[in-house]
Amino acid sequence: MKIDTEFLVYSDSKGRDPDSFSPTLKKYNQYLWSKKLPSGTNFELQTGKPETYLYHRSNLGEFFLSSDTITHTYSKWKRLSHIIEKVSSGETKSFWDSCSTVSSHLIFPSNRDDGKMNINGARGTNSKINDRFDLTLECIRRYYLRKESPLQEVLLRYSDFFELFENFKGYIDFFLLQDLVSNNYETINFYLPFDNFKRSSVPINLDEYLIYKNKVLNFVKARSTRINQYQLK
Predict the structure, then answer these.
(1) Comparing C-alpha atoms, which of 120, 121, 123, 155 is closest to residue 136?
(2) Inside any domain, residue 1
(3) Residue 169 CA from chain centroid, whole number
(4) pLDDT at residue 143, rounded to an integer
């Protein structure tokens, strides 16, 4: 399969959420993440199970998975409208489009244990994260170190999924996220200054928003390059 890292996933979702309704994004996610785990075991993702986006069942366990964007423009947030209105509509549209490619998406466990929130829901509603993936990734890094984080509870509920990758490096390498971590995998390349989840998780002024936007765009571009290189292997 040839993956087009410039394809806008909202273009074939008929006005609905691309993570659920873009057939192209679904095919891309299935192709990209059906691969060997660090253990050497193949993690084959299937479709066709009712009310399930992607599915895997083997001696590794049973996994229900969904797609979610890992970039956020905040362009439709009312609480940030006083900042967004200072950015040109063309620049905002360009940012939105860059965050609408396969490079801006990832799969997460989607099942809800005892009706509790899954990872996608938790990282979107936790005020210390507000859908920022760099902050989510810091929580995942701490999970592997058995350290506390704002998402510790929900990540622990899906420990069977995270243990597939053995450690943080395994997770990063599997999902082609190397450009969001340091070379030794010990720190996150945060979009904004980090102070142990104490400061606002969203930009507080125009300067911060532009810094945030540029770093997100750099990540998307770098991950697109990694996906394109992965296809050539």
Answers:
(1) 123
(2) no
(3) 16
(4) 98
